[in-house]
Amino acid sequence: TKTPVTVTVTGAAGQIGYALLFRIASGQLLGPDTPVKINMLEIPPALKAAEGTAMELNDCAFPLLDSINITDDANKGFDGANVALLVGARPRTKGMERADLLKANGGIFGPQGKAINDHAADDIRVLVVGNPANTNALIASAAAPDVPASRFTAMMRLDHNRAISQLAEKLNVPVADIKKMLVWGNHSADQYPDVSYATVAGKPAADMVDSAWLEEYFVPTVAKRGAAIIEARGASSAASAANAAIDHVYNWVNGTPENDWVTAGVASDGSYGVPEGLIYGFPCTSKGAEWEIVQGLELSEATKAGIQKNIEALESERDAVRELGLL
Ligand code: NAX
């Protein structure tokens, strides 16, 4: 049998954590042949709830679940971690300024990045889910100088999946017919969902929808979907966010399908004019090792403008974080 892979989940007692952990333990994160050790990292007031979730995980008698550790100590939580899902974050509360939000999250993602640097396995792969995800990933990466920046990623996959779902609904086609969807940039309202390269059963999606629908419905609906879910459910996206985290790591570790790509928030290498180092949503493929940014796409004027808007938003967050001394 294979040696177990250690997966650390922060914010494990939260609602995304609850939707995520059972799928990790059942084998959906890494595949049906890979046993998992789960480390749950929480803050002290949530440790008891984490224990309750661990009891339920054990009660599932998952054959692939090797063991569970619960801790509020990041050094223990990331010890030997091969995969880290950073879900726990400080949410924006009423009246909170951006600088305060970034500072509070810097206080979480800085120390966690350092603990990853010092204690995780050499092949560590990190996915940041907690918002502001792109900038939190940047903070964690900066605190982990010994870990290649390519191992710190931010979750854009929920936006990608939402975009597929909206296009499938509009065209009344199965989601499986849609390939090469893309959401550029930041996991925020600035993001730029882009069907320019998407195909539907092999034919260009751009020929099947008009620009008015794209501009007035598709882009804002995908970008503001999180708010629409809160409005309808009375709580933010949880199962769909957990699902996207599973998709992201599964494709990173096991590869992306032939003739398709996914959107992942990865450190820019300067592709498409995005300043090097920004954690940015790009079209990405994996063969099972590192994310690779798809090269050579021709950009329309609308796409260039969407990319630029996101560069500005993320640079401004990065500058604010620098001013706070977090980079
Ligand atoms: P919850 O409030 O249900 O859970 C968060 C958990 O994190 C809590 O149990 C809390 O105790 C824990 N936590 C806080 N600080 C911690 C720390 N320093 N170390 C370890 N654990 C800590 O939030 P939930 O709905 O699960 O959402 C989690 C995060 O995901 C939020 O930041 C949210 O904004 C973000 N999201 C990101 C998405 C994306 O696409 N990137 C989509 C969904 C979601 O909104």
Overview in brief:
This protein is of the alpha/beta class and 327 residues long. It is built from 10 helices and 14 strands.
- Overall mean pLDDT stands at 97
**Strand-residue proportion:** 15-25%
Please state the structural category.
alpha/beta
Unreliable segments of 5+ consecutive residues: none
CATH topology tier name of the largest domain: L-2-Hydroxyisocaproate Dehydrogenase, Chain A, domain 2
How many helical stretches?
10
Q: What is the general shape? A: globular
State the helicity in percent bands. Answer: 40-55%
First-residue to last-residue Cα separation:
42 Å
Largest sheet: 6 strands, parallel
SSE sequence, one letter per element: EHEHEHEHEHEHEEEEEHHHEEEH
The bound ligands are: ligand NAX
Could you name the CATH homologous superfamily of the largest domain?
A: Lactate dehydrogenase/glycoside hydrolase, family 4, C-terminal
Strand arrangement within the widest β-sheet reads: 3-2-1-4-5-6
Structure description:
The protein is an alpha/beta fold and 327 residues long. The protein has 2 domains: 5-154, NAD(P)-binding Rossmann-like Domain (Rossmann fold); 157-317, Lactate dehydrogenase/glycoside hydrolase, family 4, C-terminal (L-2-Hydroxyisocaproate Dehydrogenase, Chain A, domain 2, Alpha-Beta Complex). 42% of the residues lie in helices and 18% in strands. The protein is built from 10 helices and 14 strands. It has helices spanning 15-26, 47-59, 74-77, 98-119, 133-142, 157-171, 211-223, 225-233, 239-254, 301-323; strands spanning 5-10, 36-41, 65-71, 83-86, 125-128, 152-154, 178-179, 182-184, 192-194, 199-200, 203-204, 262-267, 279-286, 291-293. The strands form 4 sheets. It has a 6-stranded parallel β-sheet. A 3-stranded antiparallel β-sheet has the order 7-10-11, with helices on one face. Strands 12-13-14 form a 3-stranded antiparallel β-sheet. Helix 1 links the parallel strand 1 (5-10) and strand 2 (36-41). Helix 5 crosses helix 10 and helix 6 packs across helix 7 (211-223). The longest helix has 23 residues, at 301-323. It is globular and about 50 Å long. The protein starts with a strand and ends with a helix. The model has no long low-confidence stretch (mean pLDDT 97). The protein binds ligand NAX. Residues 10-11, 13-17, 41-43, 46, 87-89, 91, 108, 129-131, 133, 155, 158, 187, 226, 236-238, 241 line the site of ligand NAX. This is Malate dehydrogenase. Residues 6-145 form the Lactate/malate dehydrogenase N-terminal domain. The active site is at 187 (proton acceptor).
